[in-house]
UniProtKB/TrEMBL annotation:
InterPro entries per UniProt: Thioredoxin (IPR005746), Thioredoxin-like_sf (IPR036249), Thioredoxin_CS (IPR017937), Thioredoxin_domain (IPR013766)
Keyword Cell inner membrane tagged: no
Name of the protein in its database record: Thioredoxin, mitochondrial
Gene: Txn2
Upper classification of the organism: Eukaryota, Metazoa, Chordata, Craniata, Vertebrata
Signal peptide positions (record): none
């Protein structure tokens, strides 16, 4: 009963402006704008191979446990680079042709691409320090 009264009081408080004024804004983060799911071969061509920025390509699968750990960790590290690098996510079950073309034999496989060329690669999970070093090497920082 006390919890219900506390909740009613909280809900009846007058609004004090948006949540943004309290430092808790919601919306699309910069990291999300730098990360995208590859839709097909032409999308890969346009957004990865023709990109003016370096691109990290995360080959993953829905059924892959390590992919579920690495994916969010990698997205977070890409977001920290403040737009200097993009991240393309490629589901190998939906894009087998790309997986074969880039010789992906295990997931997760992550490629570092610059000007349409693979310049670095790793397979498996990495910790945040290793990911940061991988990204800094790619962007030349």
């Amino acid at each position: 009963m006390a919890q219900r009264l506390a909740l009613q009081r909280l809900l009846s408080l007058p609004s004090r402006g948006s949540l943004a004024s309290h430092g808790r804004a919601f919306g699309t983060s910069a990291g999300r704008r730098n990360t995208f799911n590859v839709q097909d071969g032409s999308d890969f061509q346009d957004r990865v191979l023709n990109s003016t920025k370096p691109v990290v390509v995360d080959f993953h699968a829905q059924w892959c446990g390590p992919c579920k750990i690495l994916g969010p960790r990698l997205e977070k590290m890409v977001a920290k680079q403040e737009g200097k690098v993009l991240m393309a996510k490629v589901d190998i079950d939906n894009h087998t042709d790309l997986a074969i073309e880039y010789e992906v034999s295990a997931v997760p496989t992550v490629l570092a691409m610059k000007n349409g060329d693979v310049v670095d690669k790793f397979v498996g999970i990495k910790d945040e320090d290793q990911l940061e070093a991988f990204l800094k090497k790619l962007i030349g920082a």
